[in-house]
Amino acid sequence: MRIAMIGTGYVGLVSGVCFSDFGHDVICVDKVDAKIDMLNKGEVPIYEPGLDTLMAKNVAAGRLTFTKDLATAVAGADAVFIAVGTPTRRGDGHADLTYVYAAAEEVAQALTGFAVIVTKSTVPVGTNREVERRILAARPDAPFAVASNPEFLREGAAIDDFMRPDRVVVGVESEQALQILEDIYRPLNLRKTPIVVTTLESAEVIKYAANAFLATKITFINEIADLCEKVGGDVQEVANGMGLDNRIGGKFLHAGPGYGGSCFPKDTLALTRTAQEHNAPIRIVKTVIEVNDARKRKMAEKIIDACDGKVAGKKITVLGVTFKPDTDDMRDAPSLTIVPALIGAGADVVIVDPEGRKEGEALLPGATWEEDVYQAAADAHCIALLTEWNEFRGLDLPRLNKLMSGDVMVDLRNVYRPDVARRAGFEYVSVGRP
Q: Choosing from 18, 228, 263, 382, which is the catalytic residue?
């Protein structure tokens, strides 16, 4: 199959590379000159484990190319995937669909034969109908069908998620379009991956509902962690006891500083705004958003409290600022609330993160950066672990403690066992544990 992928952001690039590895001919399109120039040099503009190797393999095989010329990419394509950004719109919390609609209208003019126009971007219910209307308005004679194919990729594990998905959701109402999409995803048949075929509206809602539910699980266990701290429970034991119930499952039951990233904050907010517009308010998700925002502020207070209520003039070494490990994504990361709060309280903050510096330096002014954990810990009053990178899971705690001027460790990801940290000399504070 011949595929045009409009957008080389996280979703577009990962999807384009993986489709080419399925054996399809893929042309990825972007308007940003610098990104296409990087990609044509073999450089990957985002950090995702394994993506550089897979991209190089398929470029060498001649199945994957990159261009700024949308018309050339779309001409003769069997499927055109729209994978552009849908950021939160300023002022009202809705998803900004400007890029989606602009791409659809430009694609309409470039069609040379029948193609299925597939929305891969996360979009509110009703968007695909509007995409269809705009294409027809721009090109009444256009031979096309519209489909919705939301992505469910976890940053840091996106390639495996694409190659071994739990399911593929396809919202489509044309038999010809469905056949094309089934052919595109045929390599997954060997793994018996379920293909969920729905209406356009159901596919749009599935994506938002899934992300909102996962955000709710995270927020729920964070509030249970607060209760555990008050009553002497251990949130990890509680989560294990809950997760063994197969109706609940153990995933996303890890207490911490709150969710962040490119999906959950944006999608929960957009879902609540859409629900309000349709007079079907989703009060649970609205509360989740409020609790999660407060959670991040509370974690800054937790660090300050661990430092006897005062961090002015004290060196705080922060381990990890990306919203999760194995990504360079800083979008809505808890660190963007926690670090400025510490600096605002007078702390001297030093940051170590394997991939976060590229974005983080501009987003966290006033902090300094180190490459080595032990150098960063020298003369620190407190170590605060915010992101559970593998590099931070096996630290030499006695050595770390000896380098510091203080002995406080605040572990917001519960990476270490309290007894081990305390034997190493730390005054250890974690989340939801005695």
A: 263
Give me 416's structure tokens: 């270490």
CA distance 108 to 146: 11
Structure letter (DSSP) for residue 374: H
Residue 379 · residue 368 · CB < 8 Å: no
Q: Under a CB-based contact definition with an 8 Å cutoff, are residues 395 and 370 in contact?
A: no
3-state secondary structure of 61: coil
Q: Tell me the helices (H) and strands (E) count for the chain, helix number first.
A: 17, 14
- Note the pLDDT of residue 91: 73
Tokens found for residue 191: 């793994």
CA distances from 422 to 204, 253, 269, 311 (A): 49, 25, 40, 21
Q: Enumerate domains of the chain plus CATH numbers.
A: 2-198 (3.40.50.720), 208-290 (1.10.1040.10), 296-429 (3.40.50.720)
8-state DSSP, 243: H
Query: CA angle, 433 as apex, 429 and 434 as ends, to 5°?
Result: 80
Angle 391-162-82 from CA coordinates, rounded to 5° = 115
- Pull the structure tokens for residue 118: 């597939």
Asked if residue 342 lies in contact with residue 312, where contact means CB atoms within 8 angstroms, the answer is no
Bridge partners of 64, per DSSP, are 26
Evaluate the CA torsion angle 97, 326, 27, 15 in order and state its sign: negative
pLDDT, average across residues 214-231: 98
**Could you give the C-alpha distances from 197 to 117, 192, 317, 404, in angstroms and in order?**
16, 15, 49, 57
Q: pLDDT tens digits for 159-168?
A: 999 999 999 9
Which amino acid type is present at position 71? A
Query: Closest by alpha carbon to 5, among 47, 67, 53?
Result: 67
Contacts (Cβ under 8 Å, ≥6 apart) of 350: 315, 316, 317, 318, 367, 368, 369, 370, 376, 380
Identify whether the C-beta of residue 5 lies closer than 8 Å to the C-beta of residue 27.
yes
pLDDT at 27 (0 to 100): 98
SS (H, E, C) 64-117: EEEECCHHHHHCCCCEEEECCCCCECCCCCCECCHHHHHHHHHHHHHCCCCEEE
| 18 is known as an active-site residue | no
Note the pTM of the prediction, 2 decimals: 0.94
Give the pLDDT confidence of 236-270 residue by residue, as tens digits: 999 999 999 999 999 999 999 999 998 999 999 99
The average confidence (pLDDT) of the chain is 97
